[in-house]
Every structure is written in C-alpha cells, then in structure tokens.
Amino acid sequence: MFLFRQDPTRRCASPGDARDCWHRPAADLGQGQADTRHADADWWRQAVVYQVYPRSFADSDGDGLGDLRGVISRIPYLASLSIDAVWLSPFYPSALADGGYDVDDYRDVDPRLGSLADFDDLAANLHAVGIKVIIDIVPNHTSNRHSWFAEALAAGRGSAARDRYIFRDGNGPGGARPPSDWGSMIGGPAWTRVPDGQWYLHLFTPEQPDLNWSNREVRDDFLATLRFWSDHGADGFRVDVAHGLAKDLTEPLADLGQLPRTAFPPGSHPLWDRDEVHEIYAQWRQVFNEYDPPRTAVAEAWVQAARRPRYASADGLGQAFNFDLLEAGWDAAQFRTVIAENLAGARQQGSSSTWVLSNHDVMRHATRYGLPFAPGNPSPVGPGWLLSDGTEPALDRHLGLRRARAATLLMLALPGSAYLYQGEELGLQEVPDIPPDAIQDPIYSRSGGTAKGRDGCRVPLPWTPEGPSFGFGSGPSHLPQPAWFGAVSVQAQGSDPDSTLSLYRTALSWRRRLRAAEELDWIQGADPTVVHFRRPGGWHSVTNFGQQPVTLPPGAVVLSSSPVHAGQLPGNTTAWLIDRERMP
Ligand code: BGC
After folding, report:
1. N or C: where does the chain have the smaller number of CB atoms within 10 Å of the terminal CB?
2. What global pTM score does this model have?
C-alpha cells in the first residue's frame, strides 16, 4: 500500500512559507477559539460523524469480534480525530445473517459485543469527551429470530401475530409459486415459503422478514424503542432503508422483477419512497422532540435527489443521506452538480446536507478512485466489482489514494455534515482477496458466488504494525486481515506527519476551528477541471481534478492533500487556503 513520502523541506515552518506548505497545524490560527461542539439543538447541522462498524473496530476480549468495550478503549483515538459524533452500526443480538442488520431484539446488546451497561458506559464516556452517539435503527425488517417472527410462524395464517409481517398466499396450483416475481436486494427471490404454505416478504435476505408498517403495534413498538435508546443516551438515529417502510401491497401485486427497479413516477413505486412513509416519521419526530436537545435522525434513503428533502424535513427525520458524491466519478463537473443540487435541496427544507464517500456497504473510496473511470460515468461503488474467480479490474492504488485524499479534503470543506467510515482516515483500500470460505456477506452466497459482496470494506481495523490481528484484538479477527495492514496501522501512521491519518487529523482540526456558516460561494476559473469554492471566513477549497498542475489562487495554503510547490496545485489534489487578510 502506498503512503506518501514527503521531503521534510516541504513542510511549513512559518506562515511566511505558506504557499509551499502541506500540513500546517490548525493551532496556527491562534489559541482559545471556540470549540465546534454544541450543546444546542443544531449540533448535527455541520457535524463530523464517524461510523464505527462495531464488530470490526476493536476487540477487547480476544474472541475475534469487535465489541463495545473495544470502542470504549479507543475513545482517546476517536477524540484525537476532532469528530463530533460516532455512529454505531447495529450492535443488537443477531445471527449476523446480514452483518447485524438482522436484529433479534431492538432493545438489547449482542452478548458477544457486551451488555446494556457497556452501552451506557460507552455513551457516558463519549459524552465526557464531547462526542455524541448515533445508533442504527433497522425498521424495515426484523430478523427471523425475533420473538415476533417466531410468534407469527406459530400462530398461523390470518393471525394478529402474522399481521406484523407481510404474509401472503402463493400463486398457482396449491399456492406453490411466490405471490409475485420480486427478487430480493441481496439476490434470490424476495419471498420465502413457511411450512403451512404461506409466503413472507423479505426485501433483503430470508433471515430479514419485512415488517408491516400498517400495523399499529409495529408502529408503537418502534416509538418505544426510540425512547428506550434516547433514555440510554443515544443522541440520534441512522434510519436503515428509510424509504422502504410504506408499501402498497394491494392485489394483484405488480410485476417488478429484480429489485430495486425504480422506473415509476415519483412516489408511486409499490415498495419504495411512498409519500405515506412520512406519516411514520412525523410520529417519530414527536418522540425526538420530547428530548432536550431533540434527538436527531438521518435517513438512509436511496431516492432521487429531488425526493430527498422530504426525508430531511424538520417535521420528519431532519436529515437524509446524500450518496451522490459517493456515486460521482472523479470528475469536476459531476462534483459541482452534486454539490449544488444537494445544497439547494437541503436548503429547501431548512436542513443541512450530508456528505459521504465511504461506508460499510460500498467499495472504499481509496480503491474506487483507482479503478478505470470513463468521464461522465458514475464511480463503480457496487459490491460486485471483484469477481469470485479472483479477477479484478485494472487498479491503480496509488492514484486511488491520491484522489481519495483530495476528495476527502473537498468534502470536509463543504457546508453540512460529513460522515466518515472507520478506516478511511488510514487511507485503507478495499481488501480484495478474502478467501471464499471466510466470506460473510450474504451477497456472495445469494449471487451464486458471482459477487464477493461487502466484506472487503469491513475487515477489522489495524491498530499496530504487528500482532495476531494488528492490535485489533489478542487473537485472529473474524475476517482475515491482509499482511499489508500492518504498514497502514494507526500506530504506523500516527507519528508520520505525512500519513493519511495525519491529514485527516489536521483537516478535521482546521474544520473545527474555521467553523464557517453554512454558505458556499463558487469561484469560477477558466479551467473546467478545477473546483474552487469559498466559505465564510475566507476559507477556500480548490481541487484539481485534472493531471496537469494549475496555478493556485491567492491566499495562504494551510493544508493540501499532496504537496504543493511554488503556487502550483498538482493534479488530483485539493488545497485549502485562507485569504491572507484573514490570517492571524
Ligand atoms: C444497510 C445494509 C443492509 C441493508 C438491509 C442497508 O441499507 O446499510 O448493510 O444490508 O440495509 O438492512
């Protein structure tokens, strides 16, 4: 794995040589400036949220699975990143049929990951260092081990217990064919037959039966769950598959084939993004507003940009993920459009935009940007890119990391909140070569082994250069780590001022200190491959998406993703500058 090597003479010794500097500590702006951590209700608007995938973050008891005490042990590290919140992916009891998004009990902790008392400790310890806690809530489906599903199977057709889910009789002689032709999001059919002959719907794996959100008990129970975790110190919720809860299942069911299939007029797809879903979130909002500050929520809603503001409404969840940046290719025009559209959309609802480059479902951006890219095309984010026969498309990891660093600096300069995924601060690449017998993601088996799935971005973090799992735990980790992980470990990068970890730390600390209002002015130059904008306070971000160096605008360079020299911004690089008159 490539890590930048830098000539020490390029480092900033004083503000005077700013145009040739690379990382200047944020402390240069002076002491005693206000901290960005708010106690107020708007803390989320420009928060930096760091996603922890608990099973792969830190393992405190050596069983190979990360756990809550592992996260607690790494709070000093999290605090050193200058983040505002941690988002914990599911830590609930689960058979892990889908990485924990198959929840057995919404109000407990998987005993392999800890206990409720550990969650309380985690929340208290994060709060003590000024970091908020966001948890994942999975309302579209339970697991098939949830007590409700067991009751539904036992109670039989037509029962109240079955009405909490979506059971239907099948088609054809004896009802032997599924009620519709729908294929699940993870491969294979979206219906599974139970012993008495009925079928249940699962938009994801068979272990994730979909809930019936027309059922009053389902609705009430989730309100109780939101209160439960809010009382346990959760400051906010990330809402899984937020666009899927309301469904039109009037018969005959539409032919949809392989899901998601989205070719429907807005709001009229039987399964996704129906307007009625917002009635559910209006109720949730009432619960959030029972707390002070109100609990926050962010919708995971894969919907068209124009529909996203509905989820981000102040009467609803308040914020919605925008995956457009993640899906954009390395292309100045695409980035500009995505940024402009999303800022306008968020403003429309009084929300703030969200920005994401990596998460637990997509290829890490340091790898994505190293794959061949045809201008005008989206970036290859899907889990199917690495084929099970071991072939992979031509990949330039060096270029990928260089662009990833540039994209991150650009993202961190945008108004709104930035969501980071664990390990991206190490510049981690996707792990392509997980042996078939170690693969956990159901996408692998349900695609008949044609797609490896998402494990490549979920491999446990390397903390130290050596050790049985590079400091993740005292034994081997639940997903195998490659040998190159040691060289990119936290410890290996922590003291290297040129490492990606140092770049993130410096950038996040500058972002906190600059703390600009939610405004952005585009600065149009002659070169279409350059994206330049200015934030209040004289903070500029300039990204050169091309290959050839371009001349930097006036200002003092405080940080850049690759070294800048003599007023030139090299290709595939972002620099942050401050107007000279604003420098202390
Ligand atoms: C989560 C995935 C999960 C799916 C089903 C997604 O949006 O991020 O990891 O497989 O929901 O719960």
Report:
1. C
2. 0.93
Residue owning the nearest CA to atom 12 of ligand 1: 101
Q: How far is the CA of 209 from the centre of ligand 1 (A)?
A: 13
pLDDT tens track for 398-409 = 999 999 999 999
Is the minimum distance from the CB of 300 to ligand 1 under 6 angstroms?
yes
Distance of CA 461 to CAs 54, 199, 424, 430, Å? 11, 40, 10, 12
Identify the three-state secondary structure at position 507.
helix
Q: Is 455 in the pocket of ligand 1 (CB under 6 A)?
A: no
Catalytic residue among 42, 290, 519, 521: 290
Contacts of 213 (CB under 8 A, 6+ apart): 139, 219, 245, 246, 247, 277, 280
Cis, peptide link before residue 252, omega less than 30° from 0: yes
Return d(Cα 419, Cα 50) in angstroms, integer. Answer: 6
> How far apart (Å, rounded) are the C-alpha atoms in residues 359 and 381?
10
290 is catalytic: yes
Q: Report how far ligand 1's centroid is from the alpha carbon of 444 (Å).
A: 15
DSSP characters for 359-418? -TTS--HHHHTTS---TTSPP--STTSS-TTS------HHHHHHHHHHHHHHHHTSSSEE
Average pLDDT (565-577) is 97
99 lines ligand 1 (CB under 6 A): yes
Per the CB < 8 A criterion, the answer to whether 183 and 190 are in contact is yes
State how far the Cα of 315 lies from the Cα of 338, in Å rounded to an integer: 25
In the numeric block, which tokens belong to residue 166?
């979506």
Nearest CA residue ID for atom 5, ligand 1: 101
Is residue 149 within 8 Å of 155, Cβ to Cβ? Answer: no
Percent of the chain clearing pLDDT 90 (strictly above):
80
Q: Is the pLDDT of residue 385 over 60?
A: no
State the alpha helices, DSSP H only, in 215-320: 216-231, 277-288, 308-311
Q: Is 430 a catalytic residue?
A: no
pLDDT tens-digit readout, 241-278: 999 999 999 999 988 888 777 678 888 999 999 999 99
CA-nearest residue for atom 9, ligand 1, is 361
- E strand spans, 414-549: 417-421, 521-522, 530-535, 539-544
Distance CA 72, CA 74 (A): 5
The sheet with strand 85-88 has its strands ordered as 318-320, 296-299, 236-239, 132-137, 85-88, 48-52, 417-421, 354-356
Return the ligand 1 atom nearest residue 141 CA: 12
Rounded to 5°, the CA angle 61-128-43 comes to 115
With residues binned 3-state (H G I as helix, E B as strand, rest as coil), the percentages for the chain, rounded to 5, are 30, 15, 55
Residue 447 pLDDT grade (very low, low, confident, very high; cuts 50, 70, 90): confident
For residue 118 and ligand 1, the question of a CB distance below 6 A is answered with: no
Give the Cα separation of 398 and 291 in Å (integer): 47
Q: What is the Cα–Cα distance from 502 to 23, expressed in whole angstroms? A: 9
Which ligand 1 atom minimizes the distance to the CA of 101? Answer: 12
**Nearest-angstrom CA–CA distance, 410 and 414:** 7
Q: Give the DSSP letter of residue 429.
A: P
pLDDT given at position 258? 83
Distance 246 CA to ligand 1 centre (A): 17
